[in-house]
Amino acid sequence: MRRAGPAGLGALIAIVAVAIAFGVVAGVRAAAPNVTEHRPVAAVLHLTGIVGPATSRYIERGLTTAQADHDRLVILEMDTPGGLDTAMRDIIRAILASPIPVIGFVAPPGARAASAGTYILYACEVAAMAPATNLGAATPIEIGGTSTPRREPEAAGQTSAQGSAGAASGAGKGARSSARSSSSAESANGAGRESSPALTTEERKQINDAVAYIRGLAELRGRNADWAEQAVRGAASLPANVALREHVIDLMARDVPDLLAKLDGRQVKVGGETVVLATRGVSTVQIDPDWRTQLLAVITHPTIAYGLLLIGIYGLLLEGYNPGAMLPGVVGVISLLVALFAFQILSVNFAGLALVALGIGMIIGEFFFPTYGSLGIGGLIAFVVGSIILFDTDVNELHLALPVIAGVATAGGLILIGLVYLTSRSMRRPVVTGKEAMVGALAEAFEDFEQHGRVRFGGELWNAYTSRPVRAGETVRIVKIEGLQLWVEPGATPGLEPAAGRREPPRRS
Does the pTM of the predicted model rise above 0.85? Predict the structure, then answer.
């Protein structure tokens, strides 16, 4: 092996030195503060569609990222019909705990902040809306989709925009506002007492809890608490211009740049301290959901979770019918675990889940215990009812679509009808195996006998009894079997060769 000469050694030293220099420069650049990170930045989060577990995770992560990047503020752009109460409360807790001001902005024009969106907008330090947007309708809804208060909105106070104007015209005038708030609370309590016979205890608990929650948020941010209560008790809604006039929101803006221009110099309270917003010249950065949030949004969709549950159950059943197939078992276990994870996050009615499991079990039982459809029909009914009430939420978009339930139930019904048909046909089919198949078959007398002798059947000799004499070679018919003894009778059709399991053709009368 040749040794490297002075030129080769010098080249090697030069390469190592260059590599070390690149490493040092990269380390210095990584450790040095980035100039662009110190530019004033406003993070923009998008709350669109249903408020669910994936949405709450995305907003919580976005607020954490904005805090780590030292952003000036967070703009929460909203367009939502509402969603799950648990996810809504998670988002509100994250907003209230954020050390960075959170600006709620209902945009673009035509958007809405309904139901859970109204609560979230009230929780933000600044509530803004674009033209031609609306908010409200924050009444809790029962499983069936019917609003909880069964009295007319007028019984709880005026819910129209004009009525709201009369109730909130002095929202910012000290003692007058306080007196009006007290009288409104008393009238609301009185209305609740008057309507108590029409509401169950559970419904009153839901209404009062929601009212207390949104009034607390309104008082924290200094907004119209009376209208917030009306939005819960009477499902009141307001367009953007009326909401601004009634002090439900703080300002209106056409878009995000217009919003930043109007926020400049505004004072807000963050963590008990007054902060002056400096938004002039602030650039915006979009924070998009990561792949985990997107995956969570897919698997927590009720239809997807429901399908994964069915795939998991039937996959395990197929693996049980065909041990060693592996693929159905692997797919079934994974699907079932993912479905159970989704059900843990979603608002699931466990009575509905139990009915679905019971229905599937009864349909499966029809395969093993043929009951001419009674088990299967009962299981199908339990399955359909359980599917309808499976998800306990007030948002229609988070319920299972009726066409999906109808499709699955129809497929199960067709399978059930086919099973009943095959079972009934097999009951009418003649027996071709076992001792029962020998009854009626033809045998050949091996010897002459009057009562006890032997006959040949299926190539074997059997002990036989008869009530009339039988001659050797005569064809006899088996009429009964007792243990290993055959009861036969002569008189079979002459010339018909006996064979195991062969029957005499039917005679015509």
Answer: no
